[in-house]
Specification:
This protein is an alpha+beta fold. It folds into 2 domains: 64 residues, no CATH class; 212 residues, Umud Fragment, subunit A (Ribbon). The radius of gyration is 33 Å and the shape is globular.
Length: 288
């Protein structure tokens, strides 16, 4: 390229009357000559780099979409589901199954409605910024009551192998629901539920609602105390425990991960990890 440039300048100075002809010839000669190896390498790597960045950008966007719209990680912070889920269980929640389905997607994707016995993750009706996990006990139209801790569903006593009772005594409101009068601490939506939805001593679940309770039945703040779960609040169902670590509730409910918790994990990762629970699948239990 440099040689051609010098030659062109010299010929233009000595023979001005042929400058146009010479310049045209040089331009044509330049256009016809192949690019150097370095130029071709730069052009090729530019395309590769641009393609690489574009592909990874799309991949990252899809992963972020998937982890927020299809599957999301949650940690269990309380003992209300003990027997099934422990404090410190880190779970992946399937957000697709209970998502509203469209006319076409309902035939292509595994959408379904909530069933009795499903474990559900939902926005807490009293504060939708909080996520709760309980078991769906009653769906629209179901009749529910508890008699001395025994669940009676649609007129039949139900076997609940997942339930644990940690207190031997009977609490009238908690264990003979909904016939016993509400106790202090029962929230207004539950008071309204008892006023509007109890028929012949049984709670009747209205449309677009779910009645939910914890498996640790004697120590669970659930629908008995704050009312129904609106169907629109339900976010998904836990699929798998991907990691379980012994930690106090205070560490897991802290919005900012504390230094003490980080040090606890780093120091006791192997001894406090519940290895037998790692990669454990989570299943509902059909209630009939």
């Amino acid at each position: 390229m440099a040689t051609v440039g010098i030659k062109t300048k010299s010929e233009t100075t000595e023979k001005p009357d042929k400058a146009v002809t010479v310049d045209t010839a040089v331009a044509a000669d330049t256009a016809e000559k192949p690019r150097s190896l370095w130029d071709r390498y730069r052009a090729l790597t530019h395309e590769v780099r641009r393609g690489f960045v574009a592909e990874w950008t799309v991949t990252i966007v899809l992963l972020l979409f998937a982890t927020t719209s299809l599957v999301q990680a949650f940690v269990i912070p309380s003992a209300s589901m003990e027997g099934s889920l422990l404090i410190g269980d880190h779970v992946l929640v399937d957000k697709l199954t209970f998502a509203p389905s469209g006319a076409l997607s309902s035939h292509l994707l595994p959408y379904r409605d909530v069933r009795r016995g499903d474990i559900i993750v939902f926005r807490y009706p009293m504060d939708i910024k909080e996520d709760y996990v309980k078991r769906a006990i009653g769906i629209p139209g179901d009749h529910i009551r508890l008699v001395n801790k025994q669940l009676i569903l649609n007129g039949h006593a139900v076997n609940e192998p997942y339930v644990q009772h940690i207190f031997p005594y009977i609490d009238q409101y908690r264990d003979n629901f909904p016939t016993a009068p509400p106790e202090p601490g029962v929230m207004q939506p539950a008071i309204s539920m008892l006023t509007d939805n109890v028929v012949n001593g049984e709670l009747v679940v209205p449309p677009d609602c779910v009645f939910a309770m914890g498996d640790n039945r004697d120590d669970s703040l659930d629908s008995r105390y704050w009312g129904f779960v609106p169907r629109r609040n339900i976010e998904g169902t836990p699929l798998i425990i991907y990691w379980s670590f012994e930690a106090p509730t205070a560490d897991l409910t802290n919005g900012n991960i504390g230094v003490d918790h980080i040090m606890d994990v780093l120091t006791h990762f192997f001894t406090k990890t519940r290895w037998s629970r790692t990669l454990k699948l989570i299943h509902g239990y059909p209630l009939k």
